[in-house]
């Protein structure tokens, strides 16, 4: 099954958060939210678009912090999960969820202060086209993540039920430059890949995450990391 077809299945949406962010997966959730907040802060009053918002983990988090945010996704089943999160958090009136195609964003040029996409580019069939469309609708910032080609991620990538694209550092930087953006910052993490953390209980994941973080602070950490976070800006 192709990535987009797999992603839009109802049962995938219903189990998405529990499968990925419970147990040891909580370390993934925590780090990804930290990365988004660090890149986009301050968010209060900022107009933000989340592309491929999925179940609304980040959309709701940013709405709670005062962002004027739209979450867009191709999967209506995922958006329903996001709307339920927004109702539970009491922010359903302060954000919008929209079904749409990331290749044709239904917004005018320079409409947002920032656009971001997490867990998107590994499934993107046209990453160059998508990032150029994201650039079109922002007047300042694009933030996104990629899975690294030369890392432990590649060991189990073949076993995933959907297609998954891995990027070398050079390829990710070429995406940024090809969209006429400048790389403002980059961070790399998770020497032990996501799949391990999702598969083990939290108590077992904890010492691995501590070791992972310690190694990540060394010069070898960036080279061994399986995930990269990219903060790109429109040149002045």
From TrEMBL:
The keyword Transferase applies. Pfam families: Methyltransf_11. Residues 49-140 form the Methyltransferase type domain. It is an enzyme of class 2 (transferase). GO terms for molecular function: S-adenosylmethionine-dependent methyltransferase activity. Keywords: Methyltransferase, Transferase. Its EC number is 2.1.1.-. One of its GO terms (biological process) is methylation. This is Probable S-adenosylmethionine-dependent methyltransferase.
